[in-house]
Specification:
alpha+beta; 599 residues; Vanillyl-alcohol Oxidase, Chain A, domain 3; 18 helices; Uridine Diphospho-n-acetylenolpyruvylglucosamine Reductase, domain 2; single chain; globular; 7-stranded antiparallel sheet; 23 strands; 5-stranded mixed sheet; 22% strand
Amino acid sequence: MVSYLLQETMLLFTLVPIFLCSVASAASLHPCRRDINESTPACRAIPGSASWPSPDLWESLNKTVGGRLLMPAPPGAVCHPGNPAYSALGCAALYWSSEFTHSEDPVSVEWNNWTNDTCIPIPSLPCTGYGYPVYVINATTPQHVKAGVDFARANNVRLIVKNSGHDYVGRSVAPHALSIWVHHMKGTELHETSFSPAGCSYVTIPGPALTALAGIQMLEAYEFTGKSGHVVVGGNGRTVALGGYITGGGHSILAPQYGLAADQVLEMDIVSPQGEILTLNECQNTDLFWAMRGGGGSTFGVMTSVTMKIFPSPEIVGMTFWIAASADNANAFDMIAYVVSQFPHLADAGISGYPIIFNKVKNFIDGSDTVIKGIIGKIIITKTNDASILAGKMESIMNHVNATWPGSMFGHYNTTYYPNFQAWYAENYDGSPTGYDNIMASRLLDRAALTDDMLSLKTALAKFSAIGQATVYIVSGKAVHEAQPRGGGNAVLPAWRRAYVHATSSIAYPSNNDTDVAIADYFSGFLSAAIRELAPDTGAYVNEASKFESDWQQTFWGDHYERLLSIKRSVDPTDVFWCTPCVGSERWEEKAGGRLCRV
C-alpha cells in the first residue's frame, strides 16, 4: 500500500488575485455584498447559480483578509493524473493515514466519508472538488474571521469552520461553502497566579490560567503548560484543537480529577453570527458564555481565544493491563462485564483511563493464530508515586476473575511511574491512523447502567463490540459530577454529571462502495440501539458519536436543548452557522448534490 505525506502547500492551493469590488455610492457601505432579496432565500447559493457571488466580490474579500483567501485543490488531487494539482513526487510523499496531513491542509478532514470520498489519493477512483468547500480563509486574526462571517451572511453563502479536521461527525467540511480555517491562530499566554475576566469589576479568579488562541492543539497546549510545571485538561489526540473540543464539552483522562474541559473555561473571545467580536465571561454576554461551553461548535459563533484554569502537572502512576479468554469461552463476556462493572469503584478512588473491549481478535499475547476475547487498557492514578494503590485495585479484580472462572482466564498488568502528566502523555498519546471511512456510535454510562443488572450489561457490551472492539473509557467521576463552572453552570449534557464511562464503537469501511456504506449504516444503528438500551436516560458526547442519532437533541443536550435553541434563534436568526447534528439545525437540510436548503 502506498504511503503518503502532505506536500508543500503550493501544490495544494492557489491564492485568489486581489481586486476591488465596484465602487458605487449605494454599495460603498457594503463593498462585498451582492444585491439580494432581504427575505431569507430558500437555499444557500452554489457555484454556477445566479445568486453565487461574482468574482469581483470574492476578490474584494481576498483584499479584506490580506490575501489569505484560498481556492484549495482537494488534498488527494496530487495522486490523480490529469488534475492540475497532480504531482508524482507529491503523491509518493503523501501520508494519508497521518493526522498531521489532514490537520495541516486547509480543507482535509480525518475521515473520508465526510467528503463523500470525492478525492482520496487512489488514482483509480474519481477525484472532484465536490465534498469540499470552494473557498477558504486562512484566518490568523479575529478580523479575518469577522470578514468571512460578514461575507457569508451578506451573500447567502454556506459557512463552515475548520480547525484541525479531527471531527468524528463531519461538521468541518461541506460542499459549496466558504470555510474559515482557524488552524493558524496560534498564541499562548500564562497567567501565573490569577486571572481577572474583562469587564468584571473586582473579580479575580485565583490560581494559574492559560489563554490560548483557537488554533492551539493538544500537543502544543501540553508542551506550553509543561514548561511552567502545569497541565491543561485536554484530550489524548495530538491534533485535537481547543475550539471544537471545548465547545463540545471536552472529556479527558484528567477529567475525573479536575472536571471536563468546558468546566475550566473562565473567558472566551468569539466572532458572533452578526460579525461582532465579543468577549464572553460571567459578567458579559452570559447566555453565550453558557452556550459556548458545551453547546457545540460551529453553531453560536467562532471561538478565537479561550482562557482556562490550569493545574500543577501531577505525578502519575500508569498501568497497562489485559484480561482475556479464548474466543469460544462461554464466560468471556461475563468476565468483561464484571471488570467494567468495577469502573465506578475505580473512578471513585481517583483512577481514570482508556480501557478497550476486544471481541474475537487474533491472539496478541503469544502471537499465535488463536482468537481471544477480553479487555485491555491504560489507566492512571494522579498525585502519587505509590504504585501499590493502582496495583492493589487491579489485583483485587484479577483475584475475583481467577476465583470465579478458575483456569479459564489469563491476565497481566504492569505499572510505570511518571514525574508529570507530560511524561505520561509522551508515551501514551493517541496515535491511531486516520484517512479512511469511519462512523461511530457512543453512549455515556452511569453507575446504574454499569452495576444494576449484570446480564443486561453483558448483553449490551457483547453487542456493542460485535464489530471487533469497543471503548469503555473512564473519563468521568467525582470532579465532573461536582463541577461548579464559572457563571453558574454551562451547557454540557447533564448526563455527564452522573456518568463514569464514555463508550464508543467505530466502523471502518472501504471507500466508494455503496454496499459497504449500507452495511456500515446498518451496523451503526445496531450498535447505537444496543448501548442505548443499557442506558436509555443518559445521552452521548456530541464530539464522538453517531451523526445519525434519531433523537439527537435529547441525546446530546438533554434538558439544556430548549435554552440552547432559544439562544441560537436570538443570536443567529438567519442561521449563518449551520451544521448537523447541531443546535438549531432543524430548519435546513442537504439536498441531493449537497445544496443546503430550507425544510
